[in-house]
Amino acid sequence: MNSINASTRPSAPPEIPRREALAALGIGAFVAAGAAIAQPSTQPTPPATNPTRPKDLPAKGPPTAIVPGNLAPAELHVFDEATGLFVLPALPYAFDAMEPYIDAKTMEIHHDKHHAGYVAGLNKSLAELARIRSAAGDSGLVKFWANQVSFHGGGHINHSLFWNMMAPPGKGGGGSPRGALAEAINKTFGSYEQFVAQFKATAGSVEGGGWGWLAVEPWSKQLLLFQGEKQQDLMVTGALPVLGIDVWEHAYYLKYQNKRAEYVGAFFSLINWEFCGKLYDRAIAR
Ligand SMILES: [Fe+2]
After folding, report:
1. Domain enclosing residue 245, as ranges
2. pLDDT digit string, tens, across residues 245-254
3. Which of 37, 69, 98, 256 has the most CB atoms in a 10 Å sphere around its CB?
4. For 40-73, what is each residue's pLDDT tens digit?
5. How many degrees, rounded to 5, is the angle at CA 192 between CA 191 and CA 195?
6. Are residues 158 and 247 in the same domain?
7. How many CB atoms lie within 10 A of CB 188?
8. How many A from CA of 65 to the centre of ligand 1?
9. Please, what is the angle between helix 142-164 and helix 18-25, to 10°?
10. How far apart are the CA of 172 and the centre of ligand 1, in A?
11. Are 59 and 93 members of one domain?
């Protein structure tokens, strides 16, 4: 499915052989499968290679609309095989599609600046590690760049999932889970209402920037609800995301200021349960 494939080509990081990049990341298969985990904390400083808006995107909104929820997880376009670079997927809806719950300007900045910054940062970090392997870089900076891979890699995948975990209100967004996911939520949390209360409390109390996650632990097949900090901290290794909410201030501050709880509450009018259900079905089938 090419409808979300509009992508960014971060400006020319040194060439990274694709296999090396994936090996350095250690999550190649994970990314390809559209599964990802992440966590929270500081505002990323867009690296020097931060791309501007992709030239193949219109000034507003996506190049083509897709039916919300009609996106298989494996089709998240986060990486370009031809160039060996991670790329910015287009939003699967217009910037104002989340109105009145999330304003258009927040969506535009969030996607075009913040998410793009994570993509550029990930490519930059991998390029720097490749330079170090070729003896052209500073070998004393492996720790720094490896840390940056975690942060920006988490940020890229988290946001790529997040856009698809939402859909326009009343047009795929809102309602409640169905099918196997609904049954698992009831079994794990006692009821949908108890899940909602605990999800809100979890996301609302993340310290600093971060995420609230509902994920499947793949060996036990159990649903876990936990916090992520920054883009990558506090994650449960191997857990496969089903639902996540970005609670960095950049996700809500223009409209909600310090009222994070109101933003988290509004998010429930936007959740694309069909997409989340696909992630769940996929996770327990592994
Ligand atoms: Fe974000």
Report:
1. 179-284
2. 999 999 999 9
3. 37
4. 333 444 343 333 333 333 333 333 333 334 445 4
5. 90
6. no
7. 15
8. 22
9. 90
10. 21
11. yes
